[in-house]
Write a structure and sequence with these properties.
There is one protein chain. It is built from six helices and 14 strands. The protein has 292 residues and is of the alpha+beta class. The longest helix has 33 residues.
């Protein structure tokens, strides 16, 4: 099975000695993110997010299906993570890896189990028809900090996505196209985002947004999921050395500040996308037609 190229002993020693002096190879501060760029596709629900050299594409789609028997009033929401050799030589086509499973599990914990998305709003006909929402995360380039950028990409995709409008007459469900009625945004109750810390020096030093080289040299990882209101939705620790409670509290404080930074960047990207789409074109015409 192919593996990621590991750093040599000299490379590892160089990275660790630099971090002892609070120096990172790319010149960033220990708690600084790399440059973030967010772009959206012409189709609703497509978000392309880059964090330094790491790049992820998230795509959301919806179909009408029957609900689960024990949840007749709730829609369905799933997250899948797909990897390919294009992102890293360690990935094989068509095969799930431990990394992709870990990312899917944490994203599900962050978004679905924290009730960020109201699944009740996806119900069309109780016990008969609901929306089945699926978000697929495509890892296009891997240079570390996959969880942070994946959570941002999924959230961008969900906020950008629009559900087709529907009506029920005489028990019959009708789904309208974009040309017939303006689609409807999803009901997101809050915006949870992940911030991952790489642990060094037995938990005494924490690095935000680690590159793949820093991840290969670290002693463990801590991921904090929180929203802009300061609510911690989840904490995940992926192996490594034991972490002191005070160190964990420091992670949470730093993560809350970083989540607000990401939230501001996300809001700005959505505002620019809204201006790009609504320039007196199709959306304005559709609203006028609906009013008539």
């Amino acid at each position: 099975m192919p593996r990621e190229a590991i750093p040599s002993l000299n490379e590892r020693a160089f990275v660790l000695e630099a971090l002892e002096e609070d120096i990172r190879l790319d010149g960033r501060a220990l708690d600084a993110f790399r440059a973030i760029n967010i772009s959206f596709g012409d189709e609703y629900g497509v978000a392309d997010v880059t964090l330094g050299k790491t790049r992820i594409l998230a795509r959301t789609s919806a179909t009408v299906t029957a609900p689960y028997p024990d949840r007749k009033f709730d829609g369905i929401f799933t997250i899948h993570c797909e990897v390919s050799p294009m992102a890293s030589p360690a990935f094989e086509p068509g095969r799930s890896t431990e990394l992709s499973s870990h990312i899917s599990r944490i994203l599900e914990l962050a978004l679905r189990r924290s009730s960020a998305l109201s699944t009740e709003s996806l119900c069309l006909v109780a016990g008969k028809s609901v929306w089945s929402l699926s978000t697929t995360v495509h890892i296009l380039s891997h240079d570390g900090s996959l969880l942070s950028i994946a959570s941002l990409a999924v959230l961008c995709s969900l906020l950008h996505f629009r559900l087709p409008d529907t009506s029920i007459v005489g028990g019959e469900l009708t789904v309208y196209s974009v040309r017939e009625r303006e689609p409807i945004p999803l009901a997101l109750l809050h915006w949870p985002l992940c911030v991952t810390f790489a642990v060094f020096e037995e938990g005494e030093k924490l690095v935000v947004d680690a590159t793949i080289r820093e991840e290969q040299c670290c002693e463990g990882e801590i991921t904090v999921v929180a929203n802009r209101s300061g609510e911690v939705c989840a904490i995940s620790k992926k192996g490594g050395v034991p972490t002191d409670a005070l160190v964990l509290l420091g992670c949470i404080d730093t993560a809350l500040g970083k989540v607000r930074e990401l939230d501001t960047i996300l809001k700005g990207a959505l505002e620019r996308e809204e201006q790009r789409r609504d320039v007196g074109g199709l959306m304005k015409e559709l609203r006028a037609e609906n009013e008539r």
